[in-house]
Design a protein that fits this description.
two-stranded antiparallel ribbon, elongated, mainly alpha, about 100 residues
Length: about 100
């Protein structure tokens, strides 16, 4: 957010920890080319999952991501309609401002 603020780029912040992610939006994200990048396999939440849950994530991640939204790699950068990038990489961000 600081990176955006310094550059005076308007943005909307959606806190996955306190605000529910609409199912339709998550379905749209999982249908996008960025779907493989959405699951954060380095998170503390991921490490606490059972082996069964981790296997489920590979074939059908929707229920797991709804139950544990912190498994979504952040930030998810969108233009309001489509995902532009997942994760923060300043070099990629320059392409969008």
């Amino acid at each position: 957010m600081k990176w955006l603020q310094i550059r005076n780029v308007p943005y909307t912040f959606h806190d996955l920890r306190s605000e529910e992610l609409p199912q339709a939006l998550l379905e749209q994200w999982l249908a996008s080319d960025y779907a493989p990048y959405l699951l954060n396999r380095r998170s503390t939440t991921w490490r606490k999952l059972s082996d069964e849950e981790k296997q489920q994530a590979d074939s059908h991640p929707m229920p797991l991501l709804q139950a544990h939204p912190t498994l979504i790699k952040r930030p998810v950068i969108t233009d309001g309609e489509s995902i532009l990038d997942v994760g923060f990489a300043p070099s990629h961000m320059e392409d969008y401002i």
